[in-house]
Amino acid sequence: PVAQDLAGVSVLISAGGTREPLDPVRYLGNRSSGKQGYALAQVAAARGAKVTLVSTVDLPAPEGVDVQRVETADQLRERVLGAAVDVIIMAAAVADFRPAKRESAKIKKTFDPAHPDDAPTITLVRNPDILAQAVQARGAAQWPVLVGFAAETGDAGHTVLEHARAKLARKGCDLLVANEVGEDITFGQDTSTVYLLRADGGPEITVGPADKREIAAAVLDAVGDLILVRRSV
Ligand code: C5P
């Protein structure tokens, strides 16, 4: 039997990469598998939480989880900002940009022999930062615990952890789950190592190398802790 430590807690989890349409048949997308979000949903539900999973991918629905399908960042934003929940976990890879215009008909190549290399130019516009907007939208009536994810690379000047600390401060969320990505440490692997960083000065925790289920459990432990801290204030 699994401890029901999240009983009575409502959680919204986003999963997968958003798809930003160019025309009725094409989109701009990314390689996010959605597996970490599904693992979070599965573990949270098993621990008693009421879970809504807003997903861009077609994976089997975890037991007891309400799955809502979306495609675009805009649709995801509506679900996230419209939710009245205790916890929001943004595991989705939200596209930073979308095509400025969604063509109503398929974009066609020309058959004009005088211009055999003609190709369209796609203009992009910025997508809203949903997590940042959720931080902004917090009010007295609804003050959810907000969790962000970050895929970081180290560079000459700063380590992954330093980049992650800066992102936590910039985003204003309560907990940031940061993992290192790079040429050898690719997306879609079965195990990874993550850092859990808390905005309240709580401990920085390293988890892994661990599979997505273990990482989910550690993230939810930290979320449970933050809920306890909040309730005791
Ligand atoms: O800044 P960066 O994209 O690395 O931040 C990642 C975190 O922010 C993730 O939790 C992701 O779901 C969220 N995000 C968002 N809206 C965006 C871009 C990222 O909510 N437009």
Automatic annotation (TrEMBL):
Keywords: Decarboxylase, Flavoprotein, FMN, Ligase, Lyase, Magnesium, Metal-binding, Multifunctional enzyme
Region described as Phosphopantothenate--cysteine ligase: spans on this chain: 11-233
Residue intervals of the DNA/pantothenate metabolism flavoprotein C-terminal domain: 6-223
Keyword flag Ligase: yes
EC numbers, comma separated: 4.1.1.36, 6.3.2.5
Lineage of source species: Bacteria, Bacillati, Actinomycetota, Actinomycetes, Micrococcales
Signal peptide range in chain numbering: none
GO CC term, one of those recorded: phosphopantothenoylcysteine decarboxylase complex
Recorded GO MF terms: FMN binding; metal ion binding; phosphopantothenate--cysteine ligase activity; phosphopantothenoylcysteine decarboxylase activity
Cofactor(s) needed for function: Mg(2+); FMN
Pathway: Cofactor biosynthesis; coenzyme A biosynthesis; CoA from (R)-pantothenate: step 2/5; Cofactor biosynthesis; coenzyme A biosynthesis; CoA from (R)-pantothenate: step 3/5
Role noted for this protein: Catalyzes two sequential steps in the biosynthesis of coenzyme A. In the first step cysteine is conjugated to 4'-phosphopantothenate to form 4-phosphopantothenoylcysteine. In the second step the latter compound is decarboxylated to form 4'-phosphopantotheine. Catalyzes two steps in the biosynthesis of coenzyme A. In the first step cysteine is conjugated to 4'-phosphopantothenate to form 4-phosphopantothenoylcysteine, in the latter compound is decarboxylated to form 4'-phosphopantotheine.
UniProt similarity note: In the N-terminal section; belongs to the HFCD (homo-oligomeric flavin containing Cys decarboxylase) superfamily.
Cofactor note (record): Binds 1 FMN per subunit.
The reaction(s) this protein catalyses: (R)-4'-phosphopantothenate + L-cysteine + CTP = N-[(R)-4-phosphopantothenoyl]-L-cysteine + CMP + diphosphate + H(+); N-[(R)-4-phosphopantothenoyl]-L-cysteine + H(+) = (R)-4'-phosphopantetheine + CO2
UniProt-annotated binding residues for CTP: 96, 106, 128-131, 149, 167, 171
Lineage: superkingdom: Bacteria
Coiled-coil boundaries: none
Record's protein name: Coenzyme A biosynthesis bifunctional protein CoaBC
Biological process annotations from GO: coenzyme A biosynthetic process; pantothenate catabolic process
